[in-house]
Write a structure and sequence with these properties.
0% strand, mainly alpha, 180 residues
Length: 180
């Protein structure tokens, strides 16, 4: 990720601590940037998502290999820990998406790239005929766990961890059911 993109992401997340997404202008976000070709605020949302992907890769450079389920749990919890560092800002982005769902559709491809990254870090194969259904399942799981995280008031994300573990256990049972 380029340094100027990291700077844009961090600057935007700081602006969001005090303002809603709607009140922040593109010129506010890019005021300290030079030679940037960003067309709209949707591009900024994509940069923020890529910034979180960048941090995830950095933080998980030495993830211990275990079962896909356990690795997926670890990767998702690491992602949520990263988001938690910017909790106020992320909650404002989530609220914006809830009020403007058509914007989420525009940034969905970036989120799907993040899901594929999460799966690769978890050593889950995304190739072949089963790849697309797996991506859809993990994408849906991610949306459900973001909803839980958004409402989790515990400092250590206990509620989110428990919910994620339950979802993964149920998913594992469902997969076993279809394999029997």
């Amino acid at each position: 990720m380029k340094k100027n993109e990291i700077s844009i992401a961090i600057n935007t997340l700081k602006l969001l601590e005090k303002n809603s997404w709607e009140k922040i202008s593109l010129s506010n976000i890019l005021s300290k940037q030079k030679n940037i070709t960003i067309k709209n605020k949707t591009d900024i949302l994509i940069i923020i998502n890529r910034y979180f992907d960048y941090l995830l890769k950095e933080n998980l450079s030495s993830l211990e290999e275990s079962s896909s389920k356990d690795m997926l749990f670890e990767v998702l919890m690491e992602r949520l820990d990263i988001l938690n560092n910017y909790r106020i800002s992320i909650k404002k982005i989530i609220n914006y998406f809830l009020s403007q769902p058509h914007i989420f559709i525009k940034v969905a491809p970036s989120f799907i790239e993040s899901i594929i990254l999460i799966m690769k870090l978890s050593k889950i194969n995304t190739n072949g005929i089963t790849g697309v259904p797996k991506i859809k399942i993990v994408f849906f799981l991610y949306l459900m766990i973001i909803y839980t995280w958004n409402n989790d008031q515990t400092k250590s994300l206990e509620k989110t961890m428990t919910t994620l573990d339950n979802y993964l256990n149920n998913l594992e049972k469902l997969i076993r059911f279809f394999n029997d």
